[in-house]
Amino acid sequence: MEKASPLFAPATSLRGALPVYTPVCLADLTVSESQVASETLTEHVVQMFQSRADLPGVLIIKNGKVNGVLPRSKLFEHLGRMYGVELFLRKPVSALNKFIDTSFFALPEESRVDDAVRSALARPSANIYDPIVVTSETGVSNLVDLHTLLLAQSRALAASNRVVDSLREMDYAIQHSPNRQALFYQILDALEQVVPYHSASVLLKRESELHIEVTRGRASLGGMVSLKGEVKKSGIYHSLTKMRQPLCLNDVSKVPEWDYFRHLGQPRAWMGIGLFDEKQTLGLLSVSRQTLTPFSAYERSIASAFAERLGKALLQDSPPPKKKKLKKKREEESGDTNENSGTV
Asked: What CA–CA distance (Å, rounded) separates 256 from 125?
């Protein structure tokens, strides 16, 4: 079977597709599910490669498990040698391991792209260009080639180099954008480039509730988080509002208190950052991932800088403060004095 999704396929949101999609981990990359049984003739594999130029290799399956990987480049290299066709074409792929190294290198699907690149490049030089086996929690294995991996890393590095420029663009937009909701989307899109996520939301506080204002990503979220009752006693709420510190949950499924925040979906890794003015909580930035790919300290600091811009946008949009009663009273007294001074 073959599974090929578009590289960095855009996630869907309340407003549709994201303009550019930065992968969170290996699970977000284009993968190949091409599998053949160990007794399959090499001739059949050659036909598969000829019909699909994008296949980096095939998984060799024996007794329901991955027994090896036959890279495309290595197979054609051996077939191109003298008597290669006669020696290999009519043999089962399981017999090729005597001549071709079919051992494989596997990584879990939640692995970060940069970590995967370092691990892949640390392989022996003879295997450095072999496709990588990506394993999932369900036991399914796929292949991803090194080119796809390096391209993903290149895009991530290019985005991270623009962090300062992105923050400056946000500061300018806050001063000049009349549409607060459009500004929120712009900030979430910029955040996604440097802190990849599967879903992100801006929640605004209204009395005793946090209402989801905008959402970006795969999950279509809606509704509100009630701040009444036990939720105020929870460690999640205390960390976000009282300590005013970003909170990262590496595995939401192991946090019972998450039930209070169920309207934010059921992610695996989550990060929340409060939005404040000098005296009170204005809202919350919620960022989540569907894989067990925790947010790093660097990502937490970058997201905090973007959350600060969201807070500025809220203050920019707030109405001017009301005049103090004392000032108003003095103005009234001043007016009375002027009237009396003009009376004969």
From this structure: 47
Cα–chain-centroid distance for residue 245? 21
Helix (H) or strand (E) holding 200: strand 199-206
**Number of CB atoms found within 10 A of residue 108's CB:** 16
Identify whether the C-beta of residue 129 lies closer than 8 Å to the C-beta of residue 73. yes
Q: For the whole model, what pTM was predicted?
A: 0.79
Domains of the chain: 12-157 (3.10.580.10), 162-317 (3.30.450.40)
Distance CA 238, CA 235 (A): 5
Percent of the chain at pLDDT exceeding 90: 50
Going by their DSSP bridges, the two strands 12-13 and 16-17 should be labelled as antiparallel
**Cβ neighbours of 200 (radius 10 Å):** 26
pLDDT digits (tens, 9 = 90+) for 195-224: 999 999 999 988 878 888 899 987 655 566
Q: Length of the chain in residues, anyone? A: 344
